[in-house]
Amino acid sequence: MTIDGAGLPEFARKAINLASAGLGARPVLATDEFFAPLERMLQDCPAVFHAGVYDDHGKWMDGWETRRRRDLGHDHAIVALATTGRIAGFDVDTAHFTGNYPSACAIDACLAPEGPNDTTVWTELLGMNLLGPSAHHFFPAQGEGVWSHVRLRIYPDGGIARLRVYGTPELDLDGIGDEPVDLASSLLGGRIVTFSNGHYGHQRLLAPGRGINMGDGWETRRRREPGNDWIIVKLAARTSIERIVVDTAHFKGNYPDACSVQAADIGEAECTVDAAITASSLYWREVLARQKLSADSIHDYGGSMIEDIGLATHVRLNIYPDGGVSRLRVFGRIARAGTP
């Protein structure tokens, strides 16, 4: 398992959390939720611990926690993924569960767009693995396929703070057809590759919907040196860019003064080194020339404002000099096989 300088395995850096509640993942079933509900396990924010906080069932915990079993069984939970996709690996996070974490876990998956039932066939993607207290447990997935749901089995009981299912959304080419779609969207497979700074967060820049507050987007620290901030996005598919939307929702005293967008076709290979992408991005062609931005507004750029540079797989959003952007949308038609 490859680990980068930030401590994340490669599959976590190169994929999307398909079990993100913020993207639309939802709890379906849990054998028990006595101490803490399943929905907490899908939250995007890191788990927190509140000393001395109790509810009617006992200590308040940020995650999913079952009662102590007194039989020979084990607990499990079923989660509907945000979108159908291929799974690369998992993070079973037991943050703050120190004396009440499960001894082990296993994970299965199924393809049941209408929801699993008693006849659903489940495929094991992770065999039984030991868990430890208050730690991330990264496991690569062991099977191939396209999946809509996962089933987390815990042995025998206990609490899981967060479950993250890293993977790639499966593009429905027939359903999309030849219509322009937002290929930067996380739900289609767009993902952030790297950025100059993300001091106040960056994960939600490509999420669906408008931001709900100033913490729901990408925001850099205040720049005190020459230059500007930037973020690079890998699009879900090769496209000829037709329209770009930059939304500064909720950013009022800290929105960027201006923005521009560069783009390039650097292929689909996932093994492309991030540092090489960053270096080459300095020379990518400009698809949107520098534009003034305003506070708490949707900025929609299309038509003659978009430079035709041919096909692109990646875009670089430049902001001048720093600040916050809630959402980035990049619309285009998917280039089909054989398109030069």
Automatic annotation (TrEMBL):
Name this polypeptide is given: Probable allantoicase
Q: What is its EC number?
A: 3.5.3.4
InterPro entries for the chain: Allantoicase, Allantoicase_dom, Galactose-bd-like_sf
For the keyword Hydrolase, the answer is yes
- What species is given as this protein's source? Ensifer oleiphilus
> Can you name one GO molecular function term for this protein?
allantoicase activity
- Catalytic activities: allantoate + H2O = (S)-ureidoglycolate + urea
Pathway of action: Nitrogen metabolism; (S)-allantoin degradation; (S)-ureidoglycolate from allantoate (aminidohydrolase route): step 1/1
